Amino acid sequence: MIAKDSKSAEIIKPLLRGRDIKRYSYEWAGLWIIATFPAKNIDINEYPAIKEYLQSFGKRLEQSGEKGCRKKTGNKWFETQDQIAYWKEFEKEKIVWAETSQELKFFYDNEYYILDKTCFMIVGNNLKYIISIVNSKIIGWYVRLITSNLGKTGLSLPKDKIKLLPIPLPTPEAEQVLTILVDFILFAKEHNFEKEAQLIESVIDIVVFGLYFEDKMKEANCYILPRLSKTFQPLKKNSSFAEKVKQLKTLYNFLLKDSKIQNSLIHSYLIDEVQLINEHL
Known about the structure:
Elements: E1 12-16, E2 21-22, E3 25-26, E4 32-34, H1 48-55, E5 94-98, E6 100-101, E7 106-109, E8 114-115, E9 119-122, H2 127-134, H3 137-146, E10 149-150, E11 154-156, H4 159-162, H5 172-190, H6 194-212, H7 214-219, H8 225-229, H9 241-257, H10 259-267, H11 272-279
Parallel strand pairs: 1-8
Antiparallel strand pairs: 1-4, 2-3, 5-7, 5-9, 6-11, 10-11
């Protein structure tokens, strides 16, 4: 359809399902949606290739409720059944998660995917700070306290429960550090640097524990936020791929060799609250 009429690209969008969502990443299944949402008030005659394709389905697309048709609505024959009044939110950077999952998995989307009904999203400010919190161990533990379990390990994650998550207000220092670390994780995940991503995620967990249990983490010499804020630079977004890899490797080696960081990764497990959370994940 796009080959026939380039204008078709305006309303043919990539689609993500709940099963595609991973922690800090996704696996797109190559699915597309023709986004003829009623709330967009589309004139289908402006998209002749799409119109021709949809007409090939004949009576099946009619929304009359008659046999062989879709359920009765007031929408036009070529439109989706639901209004999707929030369609503009898809065109923003957002945090995405699946309604049901085996574990807590939130993904940062800056490519403006359309989401199917098995996904939810968060839009707004401080998104990279927020995703570092909601993907952390402490929130993984807390979610299991407030949501319904599906089987032995599955989770039901409706949006009304996610709204209840106790996310600390970001300090400038915490937001700066966690945003930088999330940028590195997103890059590492996208390009399959798994060991680097795993270590950075472990460090994020220590930072987040410090936001909730600051006194205990300081007492155990495991409070690392000041150390991180002084020692590494943000990922340079306009740099070449090779330069970004170099930055990632530099950060990885620092985190791996720094005695303060390594001490916190090991000894934080001795803190009662951290130990309790790890035992129940």
